[in-house]
User: What shape does this take?
Amino acid sequence: MEASRSIPPQIPGYTLVKRLGSGSEADVYLYQQLSPTRQVAIKISKGKLDPQAAARFRSEANLMGQISSHPNILTVYASGVTATGSGYTVFEYAPGGNYKSLLAHSRLTVEQMLDLGIRLASALFTAHRRGIIHRDIKPSNILISAQGMPLLSDFGIAGSVYGRPGIGFTIAWAAPEVLAQGGGGKESSDIYSLGATLFATLTGQSPYEYFYSGLLGDAKGKERAERLKTIILNNPLPKFNRPDIPPQVEKVLRKALDKTPENRFYSALEFARALQNVQYELYGHMTQAIIEGIPNYPQNLRRRNDSGNAVPQPAKRSSWVKPVAIGLSVTAAIVALVLAFVFVVAPNMDTASDNTTTQVRNRGTKDHAEDDSDSAITTGSVPSVQDLTGTYVSDGGKVKFTWVNPSPEKGDSYVWSPVGDSGSDPNTQGTSTKSTHVEIDPSDGAQTCIQVSLVRADRQMSDDPAIYCVANQ
Assistant: This one.
């Protein structure tokens, strides 16, 4: 390990194996968990956590914990603070790498892409109906488990309807409305990003990089990013004109990639159903959509008989839980690709550089020499509240927090929630208010802390919530 890199901390119950990667805010290491015995990936913050960074780590773990029982969402096991004050989150280890690395040397067939798309759309709908928007779906955020299963990961910049500390995107995969507004996004924006990602599994590039490579030329860095953004905002998505991509597949992907959000699929579930129908029409089988409380297959599904006429086929239900077994031949084909990746590409990942994509950072964000060049960019579209402060109310023993809106707009509201050692359930959802103050009962701990986010009328939220703590009397 290079001397410039931070020394990984000792975490009780875990033994360090090796470093896996690094980002602007945290490093990721492979550890051996002692009980139960298994390998895990642990994300550790760089340096001691201030209140905002601590809230970021806790929020990510809580978000992932709400939805990670889904077989295609990376599982979070635990989180905590090291003896040196760094925050850490323990995740499922995905030894197969990610789809960005896989696509650097392989492509999926249409059949494999449809299988992948159904699984990811199911995972995405699971997140959406919990109020969680991913905001940065792309190949590098789709990991590959030991069983070859795709795992949607990196909800670190995800947003919820209750406010989150980071709002980000990556230009090549972001919906036009996200680029135009400078950040944020909704369910429809995630659907666009998933469509762009599925397109890339067939072609190796995001849609507009693929079709407009001539306009991008040899531009690098910020210049390339600006060119690509301009192209996405101003140029149409050409017809695919690929004989290996059936028209039914192009129709579904184009709907997901429509420039107008209202013209896309109404939900990720509708996207999954469309992919299922195309898969069955083309190949005669169908991947299950794994969503709690939702049938795995479309209702009134009709299958083809030998004469080509449709006959009724009953819907089936699945009892899949993690870890999930590989039951389809198409997934087995993906596993073959994964094995090639694990034994040929993965050993060189730590030293490989990536010059194929660009990274753009907003002012105030620190660049890091080891950051993945395909990582998210953070925007400043909605300011944080200012002058957040708190004090005890003399009559009643409550703690009163007040704040100031630095740039009021019609329809503004605020979302606050306990953080830190406030003694609240970490899954407690935020409370919305129109007021610039709130009174709450003090916590049982040493201090009472809250975070407050500004929410615009269009539901865009502060990039960074304000956090304040009052020492308990």
Q: What stands out?
A: The longest helix spans residues 110-128.
